[in-house]
Every structure is written in structure tokens, then in C-alpha cells.
Amino acid sequence: MRRLATRAAAALALTAAVVAVPSAFEKAHPTFGRSEAFSEVGCADWPRISEAYDGPWNRRTAQTILVVNPTYDPATRYDLAVRMTRQLGNARLLTLDGFGHVSNHSACVTSWYTRYLLNGDVPPAGTRCAQDRAPFPAV
């Protein structure tokens, strides 16, 4: 009986967390908080890393940092990508003229990803890529 009570208490605690955590995320981040709370579940048992780099972010790096952002991203606004690119010590912004929170709908962007990762190439300043297909195509 004691074992059953322990399990019941653990289940109640888990239920309370499942309700509380998304609410807290949503309060802090009204647009995507609730969905973001659940997207983090897969990382819950990853080991805690204490040596993560937390700045300063304006130091010049040996390799130019490639920043890619769509112009109409509901989660990461384009103006913030422009600002971040300016604030980083050595960065280049590749603009995707399109919608959605991903940039894999453009052969142009994919090509720059490949060139950047294989050779360290970055696009010329001001490069813009077109979106080849809609982010949510009708089936």
C-alpha cells in the first residue's frame, strides 16, 4: 500500500509540473511559450553543461559567422537578425525573402549552407535568396 501511495504522489507531482511548466513558458513568451515548453521535453535528460559560452558576442572570430533569416519569420524577426549580425564581431547576413521559421525552402540558401560548411565561403554582403516553395504547401 505504501508503494502505491508513493507512486500516486509521484504521478501527482508530474501532473502538476506538466501543467505548471507550459503555463510559465507561456507567461514569459506569449507567442510560442506553450509549444516551446513541450518541444524541450526531448532534451530533459541531457547532461547539464557548465562550460557554455555566454559572451561577449562582439569579438572578431577567425571565421565569419553566417546568419540566415527569412524576412517573415513568426519566431525570429528579421530586424533582430539584422541587429544581431551587426552586433557579432564578424558576421554576414543571408536573407531569405520568404515566410516560415525554416530556411530549407530555398535552393539558394541550401547552396550557401553547403559552401559555408565545406569551404567557409560566405555570400556577398546584401545577398538575398528567393523561397522556392511555400512553407505549408497544399497537398
TrEMBL record:
Record has Hydrolase as a keyword: yes
Organism: Actinoplanes sandaracinus
Annotated Peptidase S33 tripeptidyl aminopeptidase-like C-terminal domain residues: 30-129
Pfam families cross-referenced by the UniProt entry: Abhydrolase_4
GO molecular function: hydrolase activity
RNA-binding listed as a keyword: no
Protein known as: Alpha/beta hydrolase
Cleavable signal peptide: 1-20
Sorted UniProt keywords: Hydrolase, Signal
